[in-house]
Amino acid sequence: MAKSKSTYSCTECGGQTLKWQGQCPHCQAWNTLVEAMSEKAAARFTPVSESREVQSLSEVEAEEEQRYSTGLLEFDRVLGGGLVQGGVVLLGGDPGIGKSTLLLQALCNMSLLPLARNVLYVSGEESARQVAMRAKRMGVDAKALHLLAEIRLERIQEVLAERKPDVAVIDSIQTVYSDALQSAPGSVAQVRECAAQLTRLAKASGTGMILVGHVTKEGALAGPRVLEHMVDTVLYFEGDTHSSFRLIRAFKNRFGAVNELGVFAMTEKGLREVSNPSALFLSHHGGQVPGSCIMVTQEGTRPLLVEIQALVDEAHSPNARRLSVGLEQNRLAMLLAVLHRHAGIACFDQDVFVNAVGGVKITEPGADLAVLLAIVSSLKNRPLPEKTVVFGEVGLAGEVRPVQRGLERLREAAKLGFVQAIVPKANKPKATPPGIEIIAVERVEEAVARMR
Ligand code: TYD
Ligand code: MG
């Protein structure tokens, strides 16, 4: 295509230039110019749906969307009950975590009876032979799966328009490129353009589409942020590659609840669903050890018990280290300040490491109290009482704030044989679940006093 078709637009101010430059001539920002398609390149502005008249909302047909089950209950749960017709899902995750494995399994399930959907797997990363070998190794029945090993967007569009599959997987969006742009596959302009074109096609044809996305070193989806706005659902596949457990989590979902969690185990025959995961993330060391505290976190509709570990050790450099794995680093610094100010326990000359066992990432503030007690336990070298769970958010004033769905968390802990729970006062239930004693605390000092 002729060179003049490309323009460059600034991601900061939106200004346009004809030539690439290091600095935007409009807003003077550096390294913000990315290639964009010029307005002459037509299809870009074709609308998603037919209607152009103003309508009253009540006239618009609002039928319940049709959903395609993936044949994997855990995957369906995260999607909010299955893949929506014409919906576009972006699935991100570290390399080797199992994205291709999961989607191959899901597509095979969908292509077979009783679902018998017309499915298409577009592989840009692996050759047809490699995908076939993987399916064989996993022992899945792939006879009804249609495969296309292609990275040219125009060809993929052709095949999609011709075959009109119910469900299509693009593995991955970073490998797809369009002839209309000159930048390399995986560049911001290519990823944005290809994803926009595919999204439009999915909406127009009713194909449910799953785009696989790479993640950057920092763990965010690679490519432009606008990708996440464009699609209907953003899922992350996460887990510790050293353990066999994998979690799939929704970050955005136009068709269901977010923060739902699907749990799988990676086996030599692909991914296996784990339908009762609540006790998965407890490290089963015998007896109680200092620096360990069990918390109950609520992910979507399911409570999960997770062990929080802390190690507090004398610092040997002037700058004491604060490191956290699976928990927020900034929150750790805040919690240490609260501990000092309100409970009189100083850690400024101590290195502090905290870890959520099993590779889970805990984003809810309900973990605060458990992190604090694990730190105090390690510092004092004294274990928490046996069979105790903890949850609660900690505020800057030293108050312990309630968390959502406290009763469900307590019920799950009681079911798993825990006998004591340190919880925010406002979460103390009127009727205590049988077998568990509730210790309600209002302030950090009270909780810490329980350790003495
Ligand atoms: P893959 O799906 O290729 O990851 P992604 O597409 O996210 O990059 O998963 C590859 C990993 O999964 C690889 O390290 C081997 C492992 N694996 C199994 O343990 N069992 C299996 O049956 C398969 C197919 C893969
Ligand atoms: Mg892959």
Automatic annotation (TrEMBL):
The residue ranges of the RecA family profile domain are 64-215
Q: Where is this region: Lon-protease-like?
A: 351-452
Q: Which UniProt keywords apply?
A: ATP-binding, DNA damage, DNA repair, DNA-binding, Hydrolase, Metal-binding, Nucleotide-binding, Stress response, Zinc, Zinc-finger
Cited CDD domains: RadA_SMS_N
InterPro entries reported in the protein's UniProt record: AAA+_ATPase, DNA_repair_RadA, P-loop_NTPase, RecA_ATP-bd, Ribosomal_Su5_D2-typ_SF, Ribsml_uS5_D2-typ_fold_subgr, Rubredoxin_2
Highest taxon listed in the record's lineage: Bacteria
Q: Where are the transmembrane segments?
A: none
Q: Could you cite one Gene Ontology molecular function of this protein?
A: ATP-dependent DNA damage sensor activity
Q: Which SUPFAM superfamilies match?
A: P-loop containing nucleoside triphosphate hydrolases, Ribosomal protein S5 domain 2-like
Q: Where is this motif: RadA KNRFG motif?
A: 252-256
Q: Does the keyword Ligase apply?
A: no
| Pfam families, alphabetized | AAA_25, ChlI, Zn_ribbon_LapB
Annotated residues for binding of ATP:
G93, D94, P95, G96, I97, G98, K99, S100
What Gene Ontology cellular-component terms does the record carry? Answer: cytosol
Q: What is known of its domains?
A: The middle region has homology to RecA with ATPase motifs including the RadA KNRFG motif, while the C-terminus is homologous to Lon protease.
Q: Which PANTHER family match?
A: DNA REPAIR PROTEIN RADA (PTHR32472), DNA REPAIR PROTEIN RADA-LIKE PROTEIN (PTHR32472:SF10)
The task this protein performs is described as: DNA-dependent ATPase involved in processing of recombination intermediates, plays a role in repairing DNA breaks. Stimulates the branch migration of RecA-mediated strand transfer reactions, allowing the 3' invading strand to extend heteroduplex DNA faster. Binds ssDNA in the presence of ADP but not other nucleotides, has ATPase activity that is stimulated by ssDNA and various branched DNA structures, but inhibited by SSB. Does not have RecA's homology-searching function.
Family statement: Belongs to the RecA family. RadA subfamily.
Q: What is this protein called?
A: DNA repair protein RadA
Q: Which organism is it from?
A: Nitrosospira multiformis (strain ATCC 25196 / NCIMB 11849 / C 71)
